[in-house]
Amino acid sequence: MTTAGRAPTSPAGAGAPSGRVADGREECSRPSTGWPVLGARRELRAWATRELAAAGCVSAPAEADWLLEEAPGEDALRAMVARRVTGEPLQYVIGWAPFGRLRLGVGPGVFVPRPETEGLADRAAGHLRSASEPRVGVDVCAGSGAIACFLAAEVPGARVLATELDPGALAWAAGNAERYGVELLAGDLDAPLPAELAGRVDVLCANVPYVPSGAIATLPTDVRDHEPLLALDGGPDGLDVLRRLAPRAGHWLAPGGWLLCEIGEDQADAAAALLTAAGLAEVAVHPDLAGRDRVLEGRRP
After folding, report:
1. Global pTM?
2. Mean pLDDT of 155-176
3. DSSP strand pairing (201-206 vs 136-140)
C-alpha cells in the first residue's frame, strides 16, 4: 500500500483536514452522538493505526487521524478503515483530496490529484495572471479538474476550460468544475475546444498519462488496482499522449502563450525535444519539491 513515482495517494504534507472549505466557510459540524467518550475515541485511533500499519500504510497514524476527522461515528470509521486496508486510496475513502487551498471531490473512477502537480498549477497560474485580458486557460486530460479549478480560483475573471475523455472521471470533474466556475467539456485532448479559441489560449495545461506501459505493473497496488489505467498508461516510453498534444499546442496558444506538462523524472530530454520540434520557444524543465524533474513548459513565439 506504499506509494511512489507518479502515483502517491497519501496526502502527506497537506496536514489534517482543517474543518474549513476552500472559501473559508466553516463546514457543518457533525452530530456528536455517533462517537463514544474521549477515552474510547483514543482506543479507536490506536486500533485504526494498528489496522492501517498492518496493511502496509506507511503513514498509518496520519491516515488514522484523517479517517477519525471524516467519519461521523464509530461504525462509519470501521467501514472506512476496512476500505482502506483493502488498498482503496485514502482520498477515495474520505471522498476528497486537497490541492493547494482547494478541496476537490474524488472517488472511484478518477485519478487522485498529486501534490507535485501543484507546482505545475502554480506556474500556470502565474503565467495566466501575467497575460492580457481577456485571459483564457485550458486544462486537457483534466481528471478531477484539479488544475482547471486551481486556475479559476487563483485568477479570478479568467475563462477556464477543462477537457476529459473518461466518463468515470467526468462524473467527479463535473461537481468540481461547477463549484469553481470551470467550463467542462467531454472529449479527447483538445478535440472538444471551441474553434473560437484558436490562437487565444494563454495557458494550456496537460497532466497527460506518462507512466510507460511496462512500468504499470510496478506501481503501488492502491494505484494500479484502483485508479483508472487511462490516466496512467502513457505507452511504451510514457510519451505517446504528449506526442499527440505537442504539435497541436501552437494552434490554440496565443502569441506568448504557454504549454505546461507534467512528466516523469527520467523523461526531461525526450519530452523537451517534442516541444522544441513543435516550434515552442523557451522550453524548460522545472523540479518538484523533491528535486525531481516534473514540469515541462514552452512558449509560443
Report:
1. 0.88
2. 98
3. parallel
Amino acid at 197: L
Domains of the chain, residue spans: 36-105, 117-299
Chain centroid offset of residue 69 CA: 22
Cis peptide before 98 (omega within 30 of 0): no
In this predicted model, which residue has the larger pLDDT, 44 or 23? 44
- In 10 A of CB 31, how many CB atoms? 9
205 closest CA partner among 178, 245, 174: 245
Q: CA-CA distance, 198 to 218, in Å (whole number)?
A: 40
CB 187, CB 179: distance < 8 Å: no
Angle at which helices 60-70 and 74-85 cross, to 10°: 140
- From residue 137, give the alpha-carbon distance in Å to each of 1, 16, 92: 36, 31, 28
What is the DSSP pairing of strand 281-287 with strand 253-262?
Answer: unpaired
- Amino acid identity for residue 224 in this structure: R
Cell 497527460 belongs to 208
In the numeric block, which cell numbers belong to residue 101?
A: 487551498
State which fold the 117-299 domain adopts. Answer: Rossmann fold (3.40.50)
In the block, cell 495557458 appears at 203
- For 82-132, how does the pLDDT look when each residue is reduced to its tens digit (9 = 90+)? 999 999 999 999 999 999 999 999 999 999 999 999 999 999 999 999 999
- Domain boundaries 36-105, corresponding CATH code: 1.10.8
**Backbone phi and psi for residue 194, each to the nearest 5 degrees, phi listed first:** -65, 140
